[in-house]
Amino acid sequence: MNGKYRSIQMLLGLVGMILVVGVASHDYGDALSKCVLFFEGQRSGKLPSTQRMTWRKDSALRDGADVGVDLVGGYYDAGDNIKFSFPMSFTTTMLAWSILEFGSHMGPEQKNAQEALKWGTDYFLKATSVPGKVIAQVGEPNADHNCWERPEDMDTPRTSYVVNTTNPGSEVSAEIAAALAASSIVFKSVNSQYSKILLQRASQVFQFADQYQGSYNTSVGSGVCPYYCDFDGYMDELIWAAAWLFKATNRQSYMKYVVDNIHYLENSTMRQSKEALFVGGSFAEFGWDAKHAGINVLISRLVMNTSKSDPFVRHADKFICSVLPESPTKLVTYSSGGLLFKPGGSNSQHVTAMSFLLLVYSRYLTRFHRSLECGNIAVTPSRLIQVAKTQADYLLGSNPLSMSYMVGYGRKFPRRIHHRGSSLPSIDTHPKHVKCLEGSIFFKSKYPNFNLLTGAIVGGPDINDQYNDTRINWSQSEPTTYINAPFVGVLSYFKAYPHP
């Protein structure tokens, strides 16, 4: 039986190598530059003189006025004009992790990536500037989603949603703490004073998130739901934040927190959507809501080949086996064209996040001279890299439609993305104010978007490898910051090692 499985494994590996070699070569450096540039198109606030995506202008300059706090800045998470702190902080954490793991491969883009990161951390310092309070969101989402207007023209309520000691929001607060802690490591050698400020604030916000536990689903309610409800509870964010604080400080109290609480995730129930319910499968989840696989991969680097490796390495291995196409315990599906799929919309977020973890874990396995087994199939670090590369190449155009799902990359890419600012004419060409419903004609138009949101990665094709290039189909055509953030790391790796 073992011989049979080894033969199958060798065959699959050979097919995988043929597929990797057979696809058209991609310019990963160009893709990386565009991937980082995208974040400039998502900026809120007063834009700097160095702004390169010049069709975007200043916006939301009075954010926070309703609560007496300067909340100008930050990012719009997707194609709308809301600043959701939960996905924005995950985006920030992943940008930081991308730089920490792969910054040395970025070349001149490392500086641009650091600037993109700082745009997020500057905002979160503002959002956590009042002790005992954290800004969970800015902008009334229902009103915003009923309009189709440029961020520069917004006339919908810019309501500030706050969590505090009596109405807590542990998941959003802890994710912000994780973002600040991870970023403090990035800036330690770049701006030591700024790094210290980030780390001190991370510690304070984590303490607040842990001391006053509760979900922002209840505290903020319709402000975040159904858009970014927390479906799996807030313990994963608390553990995630503690893990990053330990990495930033090396204080054993944070590691103790991780070890003492990790059991809460062992048999947790995770609901990603109304249709998707996972029980006990949380080890395989990673994204803006679920941090489980990220926690195990991150901690595995610290405990691999030690007596403290369990359950982190065991669950990190299980995560890998849940993703690999040939694994008997695979929990994802693959299209006939080879793209990874998980339940829920905006599938590219899973592709980029999972690919990032595959690359990071392959580095850790190599460092500690480890491999793993999925059933009777032996898995080497190079196999993880192969799978990540096929996913990256698919998004860049090596797919049945020969279509890049990154705007501005390649000859064929989405032209009608679900994005307000991109779809309406810029202020440069149309200075007149566009009111809430006046932009609807541009939303419904069959013409390409006026402005190129360079580097934006859209939700992507369906399970049949088909893509409908229309703004109406938001789950396929809308870009998000949390799709791009882990892909910054992925592209940085393949820029340095295009032929693994």
TrEMBL record:
List the active-site residues: H418, D469, E478
Q: Which Pfam families match?
A: Glyco_hydro_9
Ordered alphabetically, the record's keywords are:
Carbohydrate metabolism, Cellulose degradation, Glycosidase, Hydrolase, Polysaccharide degradation, Signal
Top enzyme class: hydrolase
For the keyword Signal, the answer is yes
**Gene Ontology molecular function: any one:** cellulase activity
| Signal sequence region | 1-25
Q: Which reaction does it catalyse?
A: Endohydrolysis of (1->4)-beta-D-glucosidic linkages in cellulose, lichenin and cereal beta-D-glucans
NAD recorded as keyword: no
Stored InterPro entries: 6-hairpin_glycosidase_sf, 6hp_glycosidase-like_sf, Glyco_hydro_9, Glyco_hydro_9_Asp/Glu_AS, Glyco_hydro_9_His_AS
Q: Which domain of life is it from?
A: Eukaryota
The segment(s) forming the Glycoside hydrolase family domain are 28-491
Which Enzyme Commission numbers does its entry carry?
A: 3.2.1.4
- A biological process term (GO) from this entry: cellulose catabolic process
Q: Which PROSITE patterns match?
A: GH9_2 (PS00592), GH9_3 (PS00698)
SUPFAM superfamilies (alphabetical): Six-hairpin glycosidases
Which PANTHER family does the annotation name? ENDO-1,4-BETA-GLUCANASE (PTHR22298)
Describe the family membership recorded for this protein in Swiss-Prot or TrEMBL.
Belongs to the glycosyl hydrolase 9 (cellulase E) family.
Q: What is this protein called?
A: Endoglucanase
Query: What are the top taxonomic ranks of the organism?
Result: Eukaryota, Viridiplantae, Streptophyta, Embryophyta, Tracheophyta
